[in-house]
């Protein structure tokens, strides 16, 4: 959202005195506000030091002025209040401004009447534009349609036409009686102010690096439960992977590629100037698990004023070691000074549906070797096998001993997953006096997942205060959030235990999933004793297994009886105080805290197929992070056009985390779920402490507001490294070429920028030395020993990321077209990772500084306004980025083509690997042996041949190098329509789900050979063919994971003002909102190309995650 100043003035601008304030006298507006003329005088006095002399009765007639966050020339600001009351001002030598009435114009010399229309470059009428006869006080203003009429002294008169935010024009009358005037926006009006590192607000044109600001409204309509997911497709250079894992799921956000081979690659999130914890609290792996959520997912979208993405190292260098992956700054909403009480209510309700891409074969049912089961025992064994006979509608026995028609039983996918919903209500109170602005907010969100019996509730309470005192020399800001989050039964993912998706997707089409409900009071359980059919597993209340395999769970049992979840209390707070020592020097202190307490647990109930005696686990994790900053700053502009901005400061960071866990197995009393009821118990606790001390500084020197040179430095001292510190320098240059070079007429603005920076990173606590721990007790005495399986390294040094960036920003065709282009070259060296060592040493790995990764890429943002009239406008933006990554070296620089395994697929035959010389995160596995024609070669038994000679081969990266987004926004009077198309390309994925569908005979491709066999392989053994492929051939399940999606759409209607005039409501907007409505393009069978079961570095593996969802609903915003 553009943050430049726009003053909507509905009355005339007239006389401009010759002794007016300098163009360099700039007023900074911190936030949107409405002020009176006297308050405007106070604002100018506060920032520029001028005193005012005026008549109270005259000034009382001046209209109020609407200000939007940004910068404005003091002269324009003054005239916006004085012209409507026919006043001007004089500036004395002792910095006093005298306000007085204009002289009366002598109408007897008027000789010529002039009419005209004033519009902007888009043809929109400008209301209240000033039309002045030069050298006189004779003036008028344009009306609602931009029209004006003025009587001037004669043909020699010159019209001076001005409007706040636009360049002033002088037009000789020269006998002309009609004028059609088009004003151009001035560069000063477009001097956007953005929040940068450490919360410093800077002019965007001075920045030597790429920054993108996303307005808070982008997150509040077509919203996500995790606000980070809403960034998808909106920012060039930012890739978002939504982990489809149910309520409270984690978001993976990457800025300009992955910088670390095995470490954290997500950006640092900073809320109101304070870094917050965004660690993942649990995730699924090859053997299963669930998503424990992250930190950014706790933030309420309705509290966000803006989100600023600092993409380059230069932009983030002031944050030091925590900023090697970029920084995302979140500014929360606050009240405005001099504003009465304002109440805002936002209500958002959306439905959520599972996107059913599963397209199973519907011609063959449960059974083996092309035959129907003839007994309950065979049918139970075949509960996960679709290798039976062709469907013929005859009665055939099933897993529970009941005979049912051997025919398609319906869509089990749609039967099992429910329609989810998210209902969010937020109420805020805001306002302010002349000295204090405030905002209080409370929000309640209730989310029901598409997974039955899975839900999340979140309550957010927020308060923001800011103000001034001590003759405006003292300024303070504070914000606090209290967050309560409760997640019930987050779904199991990946492998089968606790994962309902695993069974739902693989059930034979002859099995109706409703037959697995069993006991209506204990879904998924035997309603009566059935030990005669199932043995001990058939006891009443035990899991009703659809198959004799204990790992093929009843999906209702997994959803309703397996219990897991967590609750989290979190406090985020920041407070800062700034004292202005004089007009150009200030001192500032800031403190912040992020503290949370998370209770989690799980129950494996009595009767679970794979663990019938039951289990229970409980864990509590407490996290506290504090930041303290002290800063000294100065900024000043000299008469020769040189200006500077300087900041120096220090930071103290402390993080502490305590974890206590306990688990118990084999309940002595069935169905009694208590840790004390377990026969075998275990537990432990862990304490982590770390700290960092830092000093930092930044200086900017500018010349005539077109050339800017910026340098910064930060030095960190880590508790996690052996007395070592690291210095992070950065330097940048920005030049407004359009201010000093004669450009073609079509170019309105052009800026060149370049920057270089280094940032680094430390390691986890306690990596320098082996540490002692207590283990299992013997004779009641805990046995101590060296903990961990990794060899410590006292010589570790920080990893280092060096980046060079160059860019160009342009505005063309009356600012109808905007271009923002960046090229970057980023290199990571001395990465910190665990190197595998021989287990005969007693350890499995050693902590070392090794590895080098590069990321080179381009980013492009195009913005345009093809049509803009008074009633209709069309805005379009396109962003794209391409990142070329390369693993330059791994553990041993002397070894070529070295490989580092990152994550293994559940099928065990595919890995995510780092391979020297190739892009980051290669999906690797075995391929087919093929003949000279490219056909698959078969062995003597008719099975495909695994290419063991080639061994593991890379099929491509699992990380999309190309990411793009296209947004179109239309406005017709009070109606708005906006939609976003999101696209990614250049990566592959290994679909374990499709592999399992091959293995079970569910995939449509497995129809081939069922009737006549394949080659020498008879039809009765065709299952062996597809099972062999699943276990041995990765190539079959490698897919191009590129996609195009209709990511977001909103259709809004703002109730006209005249309708609300007789009500207490100030504004009201009703919108239809939707997300993920259409998968426009995909090459992946049965699953969504974005499917992933965790947010780790091993991207590109998929195995029975929760289905992707589409959502649609309504958003209502009312203020009064």
TrEMBL record:
A Gene Ontology biological process noted in the UniProt record is: siderophore transmembrane transport
Q: Where are the transmembrane segments?
A: none
GO CC, alphabetical:
cell outer membrane
Question: Do the record's keywords include Transmembrane?
Answer: yes
GO function term, MF aspect, one = siderophore uptake transmembrane transporter activity
How does this chain sit within the bilayer?
A: Multi-pass membrane protein
Q: Does the keyword Mitochondrion apply?
A: no
**SUPFAM superfamilies in alphabetical order:** Carboxypeptidase regulatory domain-like, Porins
Per the record, the major location class is membrane
Q: Where in the cell is it found?
A: Cell outer membrane
Domain TonB-dependent receptor plug: residue ranges: 204-327
The record's keywords, sorted A to Z, are: Cell outer membrane, Membrane, Signal, Transmembrane, Transmembrane beta strand, Transport
Which family, according to the similarity comment?
Belongs to the TonB-dependent receptor family.
Q: Which PANTHER family match?
A: HEMOGLOBIN AND HEMOGLOBIN-HAPTOGLOBIN-BINDING PROTEIN 1-RELATED, TONB-DEPENDENT OUTER MEMBRANE RECEPTOR
Q: NCBIfam families in the record, alphabetically?
A: OMP_RagA_SusC (TIGR04056), SusC_RagA_signa (TIGR04057)
User: Which protein is depicted?
Assistant: TonB-linked outer membrane protein, SusC/RagA family
The protein's organism comes out as Zhouia amylolytica
